[in-house]
Amino acid sequence: MKILFLCTDNYTRSITAEFCLVNYLKKNNLSHIEVQSAGFKSNSDLSSFSSIHFDRMDQLSIDTSNFKRTQFNKEFFEEFSVIVGMGKEHKDYILQEYGKRIYLFNEIYKKEEISLVVPPPDEDGSYLEEIKNMVDYIHNAMPKFVENLSLIQVQT
Question: Where does the record place the Phosphotyrosine protein phosphatase I domain (predicted)?
């Protein structure tokens, strides 16, 4: 099974999901799943983005050394058996632009159509803690996420 995590910039949510899943698969000697991530705007300017999610993954001993951003393209529908949007906006975009349905991360993990949200920067810096919490959420979700993957219908 090949899974693609999809978000806007391919920098925070989808990258975190990719590396957390790769880490989980490696630690559990699971080789039946391949994983990658992509974004609709993978060429966006990252100069104002926080790297706190990379710091948190490092604290969790998740190797992110292979980090690279990938631009989403329509050929991914043929290459990947499951495409997972991180937010409802990604699911809606795919349906509108390509007429295809994809899953949300939380649809697979919790069977709930709820977006994973990256908080915007705020003056007091509380968004940094929210991003750390998002990494922990994704990291902790992986056992159930992988278990639930077997229950979903593969996209065609």
Answer: 1-148
